[in-house]
Amino acid sequence: MTQDRQDNETTDEAQAENASPSLNKGFTERLAAIAVRGGVATVKTTKPVALIIAYTALSLYYLWCLPAVYFLNIPWYWFRVVLTIVFAIAVPAILIVFRKRKWSLWTAAGICLFFGIWFSLIPPSNNRNWMPEVARLPRVTINGDQATVENVRSFIYKTENDFIPRYRTETYDISELDEVDYILSYWDGNTKVAHSMLSFGFSDGKHLCVSVETRREKGEPQTGLRGLYNQYERIYILADESDLLLLRTNYRHEEVYVYPLKFDRTKAEKLLRRIFDHVDSLDYHPEFYNTIKHNCFTSVLRDVAIARGRPFDFDIRMLLNGLSDQMGYEKGWFDTKLDFANFKKLHHINQYVENDPDAFKNFSQKIRPWARKSGKRE
Fold it and tell me: For residue 227, which of 262, 291, 350, 368 is within the disulfide window of CB 3.0 to 4.6 Å?
């Protein structure tokens, strides 16, 4: 009995060993089949994802192109309106009606690309029928430390839109620069967005105010959308403070703040020379204003960054420049011992001039009572 049991066990082991290659082979084949099916599934899954990405990108570009088509350099308004409507309907129609055709996506993308390239090739110009306040570009000639500026704006205002245009030629000694002010002007109750300017003060009492603005044509409205789509050229206005600031405090009734920056003569001179170079280059190489990339604040910030030799660290308040004074206070831009609330209150210049009928007389001195206290800044 014992011998029979051993023989049976030996036979079972032999059968198991003979069966194992077949089992292993079958298991391997099933694994291979699963792997192949998985690969096919991956390929099938990847294609729809790629199409979703392509359609999303095309949709975004199509939406960007809609205003671009409207703002093309076509002189007939009616034609631009009709073209925009046709474009707005044609692109989605191609994608919907011919969605099963392989060429529909490429055709729609090609139409968008055609108009996008056309729009991007429209050049800026200095030869347009400009509004009187931006009719003249300033020009700067530098000889050593002497900068002669033509077309310094010095308008005399009766109301916001009723003024006597005046321009003059003025010479500034860059080596006598002793003050740089950062200016914010808030309109229509805004607190997060403002117009940014700079003002340079000299030891002889002169002040030169710098404002980067849209150069609009006569009758052209000012909107953020037009600013995004290259409808305005960019101008650096060089003017008296009694022009740019008095206009805002007493006639537009904006809230204007003038903050003295910590003064570093080397950097201040480099900044002013940088601005003068840019001003002069615009006379020969006009540039577009852009609501986001090349506006009043980003243009000044870029000039300051070049003068200081390094870019600024990003701060969300760079996009909401009405908060840039608080940002500057926290980063140590200003020379003061006051807390921010009192510092801002002191430098709110409306309180010094808005009820003064002769505000234009000695305007730069009137708006700086902190500078009249033995030259001490607060």
Answer: 291
Contacts within 8 Å (CB) and 24+ apart, 365-370: 365/205, 367/241, 367/245, 367/258, 368/258, 370/260, 370/346
Residue 1 placed within a domain:
no
Residues 170 and 309 in one domain: yes
Last residue of some domain: 97, 120, 143?
Answer: 120
- Per-residue tens of pLDDT for the chain, all 378 residues: 444 544 544 455 445 444 444 445 554 455 444 444 444 444 455 678 887 888 899 999 999 999 999 999 999 999 999 999 999 999 999 988 887 777 888 999 999 999 999 999 999 999 999 999 999 999 999 999 999 999 999 999 999 999 999 999 999 999 999 999 999 999 999 999 999 999 999 999 999 999 999 999 999 999 999 999 999 999 999 999 999 999 999 999 999 999 999 988 999 999 999 999 999 999 999 999 999 889 999 998 888 888 878 888 888 888 899 999 999 999 999 988 999 999 999 999 999 999 898 888 999 999 999 875 544 445
DSSP letters for 212-259: EEEEPBTT----HHHHHTT-SEEEEEEE-HHHHHHIIIIIS--EEEEE
CA distances from 62 to 15, 154, 320 (A): 71, 45, 28
In a domain, 6, yes or no: no
What string of DSSP letters covers 313-332?
PP-GGGTSGGGHHHHHHHHT
Residues 174 and 300 in one domain: yes
Q: Where is the domain boundary, 120, 146, 167?
A: 120
Does residue 224 belong to any structural domain of this protein? yes
| Domain, as residue range, for 213 | 132-372
Q: Do 305 and 175 reside in the same domain of the chain?
A: yes
- Token pair of 354, please? 């808005």
116 vs 83: CA distance, rounded Å: 14
Neighbours of 238 (CB within 10 A): 26
CB 186 within 8 Å of CB 194: yes
Are residues 98 and 150 both part of a single domain? no
Within this chain, do residues 298 and 217 fall inside the same structural domain, yes or no? yes
How is residue 274 written in tokens? 């940088």
Element (H, E) at 182: strand 177-186
